[in-house]
Automatic annotation (TrEMBL), chain A:
Superkingdom of the source species: Eukaryota
Protein's name in the database: MHD domain-containing protein
UniProt-listed Pfam families: Adap_comp_sub
Keywords of this entry: Membrane, Protein transport, Transport
Stretch forming the signal peptide: none
Family, per entry: Belongs to the adaptor complexes medium subunit family.
Location in or out of the cell: Endomembrane system
Domain MHD: start-end pairs: 178-414
Organism: Citrus sinensis
GO cellular component, one term: endomembrane system
Keyword rRNA-binding recorded: no
GO biological process: intracellular protein transport; vesicle-mediated transport
InterPro entries (UniProt xref): Adaptor_comp_med_subunit, AP2_Mu_C_sf, Clathrin_mu, Clathrin_mu_CS, Longin-like_dom_sf, MHD
UniProtKB/TrEMBL annotation, chain B:
Protein's organism: Citrus sinensis
Protein name: Beta-adaptin-like protein
Complex and partners: Adaptor protein complexes are heterotetramers composed of two large adaptins (beta-type subunit and alpha-type or delta-type or epsilon-type or gamma-type subunit), a medium adaptin (mu-type subunit) and a small adaptin (sigma-type subunit).
Free-text function comment from the UniProt entry: Subunit of clathrin-associated adaptor protein complex that plays a role in protein sorting in the late-Golgi/trans-Golgi network (TGN) and/or endosomes. The AP complexes mediate both the recruitment of clathrin to membranes and the recognition of sorting signals within the cytosolic tails of transmembrane cargo molecules.
GO molecular function: clathrin binding
């Protein structure tokens, strides 16, 4: 079980330390860890599970903050990592975002949260709804209240009802003046396109996110028009397994507020919305590059936030790149970013230029990989469609909303 | 668990000592302590906050302990919490002062607010001062009987904390039996889960000294307890589910019906959002079916999709942990994953440790149908910016070539690498071509043509240079200028830093001599002379050996140096299958991530310099040795040790014996008695076969299921199977079989593991 949790700033200083068991973990472990990270060059590059001479260390990095957990006993590694991820999620949820100052300003709350989330090294409550009832998040309203009334306790006086509730993820008495429920399909497209323009791999990872603002104890049923395209699914604990197994229907009593109802994968997609055609020819120490971007399959909605990013090979001394649309930036670490935005109607965006190779090198042997980002609002590219959302035990007047968005995930084009 | 070591904090010299601030705080706190003015809590809170922030950045504020305790008489819960935090941190180094806090903590334990009762109890148990344990027993006993589940949850963990401070006190107060009672009867799942984790720890620590404790530990994995926990699994929090599943993985079902019932009940856990739950479930499935070869394969098919989804969702850290587990499965049964090879393609942005795992998996899953795509993909990585990965992928191509029969296309690819004019690519490719030639001598003609065009000046890496020289010697009859290249290499003997290269050079010159004597004679003399004068012992000895061999009889020498060679059919694997099995045994543990069985990094004898220590001085020394590769011969010796010493392993293994239908000679008496107990229990409950229709799947009905909880001590509850699900194993198995299986090879049963 975990013995200690540390939060480290981006310079390696300890922001917060929480000892969990009788065996005290000395802070020097953080120095060891930081030396290790520096020897690896980059904290993103060091492994999530490290064996130090005295402890096994789990680490995750979020927004420049390193979450570190130590143990000396064997335990499931995912339990450590998942827990740290949960801590990071809940902290950023409570504090609005994650940064060193915010944590330092609110470290009492952070301690309180950790106290409820883990006891003696074993994770207890990580359900945000329940934590929220035990420890009120610091927000403007409570700050105002505390100034006005002088009572600034951010701990609720009563124990969360949900601890006694038969649906552990939902508080018992939720009341809203306006009852609303929003269902979002959020998809990420992962694709690899090889140098011949052939789609090597194309897959969508999607999530059904629900924002549920409903009074009482509602019972929801969500069905899809084409559930058969889903390859594998994972559910929030609230989803009943049987209706899905027999009829592919999601039946659940939702938690209050925003949550991830389900995640899924759709395999073997045949096409991508945009094309990227890089061409590199090199001769006698110089290399000509030209990249064309355009719409391949019109998804019916605008594709925006198109960004192309690539790392110039180390053997390139200088690059002179221009584009007929958007802006091109080359950073000192040879990362080149081409922000296109939307594709204009009248022309196809293209980037061209020449690059000078290292002296003694005639032709380019190492080719860059182009990473593409885009966003399409209003479309789920997997083709998944929500059929209907039925609600029981809810007030008559309510608003239902559906949205969809597709983003590029790991979308790369090789040259 | 390692004994809790006393570690005194030593403020690092870089941080300010904060002496002035601390004494300031001290006087301010003292002023506030007696005051009862309105609004005093706010000013106290500011001060407390300051104290705790000093504590957090590592300044020693233990000097204000007395003042903090004096200020703690308050009804404000935030103040209380901060005070508890402070006290918990410093009580251990100030045992005398800690006594001061006992009073107010004990009072808070009787507060009417359950939150305060719980918090006070938690802090009381976290003081961890040995001479204060007498004050713990009373509040803990009350806490365990509290009518609020929050307090009970805290109290249960408190018992465990008490045990770690003073085991005899905990045992004398009869807490473990109370916990057992709570575990089997408490309506709150979190209390049950905490009881389970506390009991597991207490009983396994006690087991070495007390027979009763070891019996109790065995009883935890008995049918009644396991069934009771399984029936409530949906009520538990995700973390508690992991705990229960870990326990279930140790359970040994009596027959295949039970196995199918448990798998039926747990199948939906594979779709849980928490990756830790999914992996624990997978572990249960794999362990349950070890003895059933065909079902075991179906389990692989079933868990494939959830694992692959886990990899693509979640953060990079999570995917890495999942990938490590996927890696071990792929290595065990590559053909099952053969159609999913595209999942193992590397993405540009991934950290290199992920890429490395993926490359190994790509290598493993390559077969006749997908080799072309995989090799094409790997060749793309050879032009990668990341040089270690480029090297790794060339090696992967080579490995695939060595495990395939149809290597035609791959050889062409490798030869293209040689022409890429990147020194590291050429180097890796040379080593591979050498291995390839040893296995497929028929390709020598094509390879030699390309290798001959490589200038030896461009090859610097010892391994590659050695490979090139080996080929020069071995195929000197086909390479026009082999003797002359060797000659120029011999001339630069002095400049060659690597002994390995010099050794190869000696042998190559010898080989060349027997094939083309007139051209090589001069070089041979020079090489032998240089070798004899070499300061490296091995090189010197080999030169001397060749010299004497030639003097003795030239034809014998030829038979020694140039014997007819047979193609190598299989290259030895680096990691023994025994170790792989051991790691598999420890699925869902750190072993998988490290790719080493746990004894290699936790066993004291094994670790050697890699020891646990809390002293700062040792850290740097040990850190260096941590990277050392464990010597191979040590493994064997230690293995035997381990088998004799760790009793727990033995039991699991013994248990596996039993399932597989072998006689169980390894069973010790205590395990056997449990076994007979089980038999009696199951005979009494023969009537309540698992076909009972207790199935309550409705989420809202969970409360109901807890109410008619059977008395598990006497009658084992039957599993509440999913109503819609298939009850008899035959049909269930049928369903598993329907999963797409593409088996073309005979699957090795896991007997090795069982017999091990």
């Amino acid at each position: 079980m975990l013995q200690c949790i540390f939060l480290l700033a981006d310079n390696g200083a300890v922001i917060l330390e929480k000892q969990l068991t009788g065996h005290r973990v000395d802070r020097s472990i953080c120095d060891w860890f930081w030396d290790h990270v520096i020897s690896q060059g980059d904290s993103f590059k060091s492994m999530p599970v490290i064996a130090s001479p005295t402890h096994y260390i789990f680490q995750i990095v979020r927004a420049g903050i390193t979450f570190l957990a130590c143990t000396q006993v064997e335990m499931p590694p995912l339990m450590g990592i998942e827990f740290l991820c949960r801590v990071a999620d809940i902290l950023s949820d409570y504090l609005g975002e994650l940064n060193e100052d915010l944590i330092k300003d609110n470290f009492v709350i952070v301690y309180e949260l950790l106290d409820e989330m883990i006891d003696n090294g074993f994770p207890l409550t990580t359900e945000p709804n329940i934590l929220r009832e035990m420890i009120a998040p610091p927000n403007i309203v409570s700050k105002m209240l505390s100034v006005v009334t002088g009572n600034s306790s951010n701990v609720s006086d009563i124990l969360p009802g949900a601890t006694a509730s038969c649906v552990p993820w939902r508080p018992t008495d939720v009341k809203y003046a306006n009852n609303e429920v929003y269902v979002d399909l959020v998809e990420e497209m992962d694709a690899i396109i090889n140098r011949d323009g052939v789609l090597v791999k194309c897959e969508i990872y999607g999530e059904v996110q629900v924002n549920c603002l409903l009074s009482g104890l509602p019972d929801l049923t969500l069905s899809f028009a084409n559930p058969s395209i889903l390859h594998d699914v994972r559910f929030h604990p609230c989803v009943r397994f049987r209706p899905w197994e027999s009829h592919q229907i999601l039946s659940f009593v939702p938690p209050d507020g925003q949550f991830k109802l389900m995640s899924y994968r759709v395999k073997k997609l045949k096409s991508t919305p945009i094309y990227v055609k890089p061409q590199l020819t090199s001769d006698a120490g110089t290399c000509r590059i030209s990249v064309m971007v355009g719409i391949r399959n019109d998804p019916g909605k605008t594709i925006d936030s198109i960004i192309l990013q690539f790392q110039l090979p180390p053997c390139i001394l200088s690059a002179d790149l221009t584009s007929n649309h958007g802006t091109v930036n080359v950073l000192s670490n040879k990362i080149c970013t081409w922000s296109i935005g939307r594709i204009p109607k009248d022309k196809a965006p293209s980037l061209s230029g020449t690059m000078v190779l290292e002296t003694g090198l005639e032709t380019l042997r190492v080719f860059p990989t182009f990473q593409v980002e885009f966003r399409i609002m209003g479309v789920a590219l997997s083709g998944l469609q929500i059929d209907k959302l039925d609600l029981q035990n809810v007030p008559n007047r309510l608003y239902k909303g559906f949205r969809a968005v597709t983003r590029a995930g790991e979308y790369e084009v090789r040259s | 668990m390692a004994p809790p070591a006393q570690a005194h904090r030593s403020p690092s010299p870089s941080q300010p000592s904060g002496k002035g601030e601390v004494s300031d705080l001290k006087s301010q706190l003292r002023q506030l302590a007696g005051s009862r003015a309105p609004g005093i809590d706010d000013s106290k809170r500011e001060l407390f906050k300051k104290v705790i922030s000093y504590m957090t950045i590592g300044i020693d504020v233990s000097a204000v302990f007395g003042e903090m305790v004096m200020c703690s008489a308050t009804s404000d819960i935030v103040l209380k919490k901060m005070c508890y935090l402070y006290v918990g941190n410093y009580a251990k180094v100030n045992p005398d002062l800690a006594l001061l806090t006992i009073n107010f903590l004990q009072r808070d334990c009787k507060d009417e607010d359950p939150m305060i009762r719980g918090l006070a109890l938690r802090s009381l148990c976290s003081l961890r001062v040995a001479n204060l344990v007498e004050y713990l027993v009373g509040p803990l006993g009350l806490g365990l009987k509290d009518n609020n589940s929050y307090v009970r949850t805290v109290a249960v963990i408190g018992v465990l904390k008490l045990y770690h401070i003073s085991a005899p006190t905990c045992i004398d107060a009869d807490f473990p039996p109370t916990l057992k009672h709570l575990m089997l009867n408490d309506p709150d799942p979190q209390v049950v889960a905490n009881c389970l984790s506390a009991l597991q720890e207490i009983w396994s620590l006690e087991a070495s000294t007390s027979e009763e404790a070891s019996r109790e530990r065995e009883a935890l994995i008995s049918k009644p307890v396991i069934y009771y926990l399984l029936n409530r699994i949906k009520e538990f929090s995700e973390w508690a589910q992991c705990l229960v599943l870990e326990l279930v993985a140790k359970y040994v079902p009596l027959d295949s019906n039970e196995i199918f019932d448990i798998m039926n009940l747990l199948e939906d856990r594979l779709q849980h959002a928490n990756g830790a739950v999914v992996l624990s479930t997978i572990k249960v499935f794999l362990h349950l079916t070890l003895s059933m070869t065909d079902v075991h394969q179906q389990v692989y098919e079933r868990i494939k999709a959830p694992l692959l989804t886990l990899v693509s969702s979640g953060s990079p850290e999570q995917s890495y942990a999942v990938l490590s587990h996927l890696h071990i499965l792929v290595m065990r049964a590559p053909f099952i994953f053969a159609s999913d090879y595209k999942h193992f393609y590397c993405q540009y942005n991934e950290p290199s440790y992920v890429k490395k795992l993926k490359l190994e998996m790509l290598t493993a899953v390559a077969n006749e149908s997908n080799t072309y795509e995989i090799v094409t993909e790997l060749c793309e990585y050879a032009a990668n910016v990341d040089i270690p990965i480029a090297r790794e992928s060339i090696r992967a191509v080579g490995k695939i070539a060595l495990q395939q029969y149809d290597v035609n296309a791959i050889v062409d690819r490798l030869l293209q690498f040689l022409e890429m004019e990147k020194d590291y690519v050429t180097a890796e490719a040379l080593v591979l071509v050498k291995d390839l030639l040893r296995k497929y001598p028929q390709w020598s003609h094509d390879c030699i043509a390309v290798v001959g065009s490589i200038s030896s000046q461009n090859v610097q890496e010892p391994k590659a240079k050695a490979a090139l020289i080996w080929m020069l010697g071995e195929y000197s009859q086909d390479m026009q200028d082999a003797p002359y290249i060797l000659e120029s290499l011999t001339e630069n003997w002095e400049e060659e830093p690597s002994a390995e290269v010099r050794l190869h050079l000696l042998t190559a010159v010898m080989k060349c001599f027997f094939k083309r004597p007139p051209e090589t004679q001069k070089v041979l003399g020079a090489a032998l002379a240089a070798g004899l004068a070499d300061f490296h012992q091995d090189v010197h000895d080999r030169a001397l050996f060749y010299h004497r061999l030639l003097q003795y009889n030239v034809s014998v020498a030829e038979r020694v140096v140039n014997p007819p060679k047979q193609a190598v059919s299989v290259f030895a694997d680096t990691q023994s299958s025994e170790i792989k099995d051991r790691i598999f045994d420890e699925f869902n543990s750190l072993s998988v991530v490290y790719q080493k069985p746990s004894y290699m990094f936790t066993d004291k004898d094994y670790r050697g310099p890699f020891e646990f220590s809390d002293e700062l001085g040792n850290l740097s020394i040990a850190a260096e040795s941590a990277d050392n590769v464990v010597p191979a011969q040590g493994v064997e010796a230690n293995d035997k040790d381990l088998l004799l010493s760790t009793s727990e392993k033995e039991e699991i293994r013994g248990a596996t014996f039993n399932v597989s239908g072998y006689s169980a000679p390894l069973y010790d008496s205590s395990a056997a008695s449990v076994q007979s107990e089980l038999a009696i229990i199951s005979s009494t409950s023969a009537g309540s076969a698992p076909s009972s229709s207790l199935a309550i799947d409705d989420l809202l009905g969970l409360g109901l299921s807890a109410a008619p909880a059977p008395e598990p001590a006497s009658v084992p509850p039957s599993l509440k199977l999913n109503s819609k699900a298939i009850l008899d194993p035959g049909t269930f198995q049928q369903k598993w079989r329907q999963l797409p299986i593409s088996l073309s090879q005979v699957y090795l049963p896991f007997l090795t593991l069982i017999l091990f």
